[in-house]
Input
Amino acid sequence: MHFSRRQMLAAAAVLTGFSSSPRVQAQASAWPAKPIRFVVPFAPGGTSEIVARSVAAELTKQLGVSVYVENKPGGAGVTAMSEVAKSPPDGHTLILTHVGTLAVNPFMLKNQPYDVNRDFAPVTLLAKVPNVFVIHPDVPAKNFQEFVAYAKANPGKLNYGSAGNASAGHLAMEYLKLVTGMFITHIPYRGTGPQLTDLLAGRTQASSAGMPALGAHIRSGKLRAIAVGTQQRIPAMPDVPTVAELGFKNFETSQWYGIHVPAGTPPEIIRRLQEESFKALRSSAVTERFATDNAVGGGGPASEYAEFVRKEQAIWKDIVARAGIKPD
Output
């Protein structure tokens, strides 16, 4: 079997996390040599951007160069992933990766212009954020059970919005539809912000997203939280039940976000970036923000994130097939 030099370097980054090569050490010692671009494959206004900007702000302080967030939505994340895959593997271009781009797109989309496991190298898991299921107050349902019953009695009448195909919200709602047997039409948007605009206006009736994007609207009464996707209730909403406790045993879905870089990025740079990310995640600014949003910080080594992604891919490959999730 033939492996390219780029593939071997990516493998070394994951399996060893270090290198004694003088050339690689020289590259790492010179990093960062310029501002670092942190690409987010979704529109502004969602949980992904909140996580990215929180971490980027701390990395900017720690590294002494600007780590700036660039939103690049489109194609269920494919647009941004394609561009980053072709970027120089020098540690100056990062991408925020998540469940959709890494664990769903490979099984939902045909002919992607890259291989997520070959053309990117993992750095670290940044955060896990609980999925919250919400409905507009005009929906004649006060709780989860009533919502499911209403949707089943009115198949196709309700619409739910998401940040786009393969977004965490899309996946969570399709998974929920699969286990409950209800039918709700999916309306994909170009980001959480745009889809929330229509949900708040009552043009769509339901959604699933993270607490960072939904919390204020739930507290104000503009949206009604009916369930959470984690196995345990979340502190911010102790009265909102989990889907699992409502009769759907083992149901669990959360949004998760991490950092990847182009394959071939020197292992020493990947290790340094992971260490700086770990430090940023433990800063008071990030821990306080994450606590507010019920997010759980990560920061572990690249090998740990790689194994986490492998497990998620196995889970979502099965769900994509069973739920018939397809690009709209």
